[in-house]
């Protein structure tokens, strides 16, 4: 099993991505880490049974829009993601909201630079899904 400090991994990834270290508050590795974004849903990072999940809740209204744009959303999911174990993002329902999820591939957990690629990749997909669901 791979052992890592998720708080340090996230901090390093944010710094590699150009985030000012003074803007990064205390990060607790024992609970879900939430990255609040401007004009997009927050990105959440959590560890469960040694697996790292990146996820974002897309909103309660998204379930109706999902029905209307299912083909477009399915095509986006089928494009694949290199940073995700299994190669594809997941869509699910969590607390009544449509949720975009990624089980991070272990190759992207070895250092901040690799994890920043996973975070940035998830962010890019979150933008695409948010645009699809909001138009």
UniProtKB/TrEMBL annotation:
Taxonomic placement: Bacteria, Pseudomonadati, Pseudomonadota, Gammaproteobacteria, Enterobacterales
Source organism (scientific name): Salmonella enterica
The protein, known as: Type III secretion system chaperone SpaK
CDD domains: T3SC_IB_Spa15-like
Domain of life: Bacteria
Transmembrane segments: none
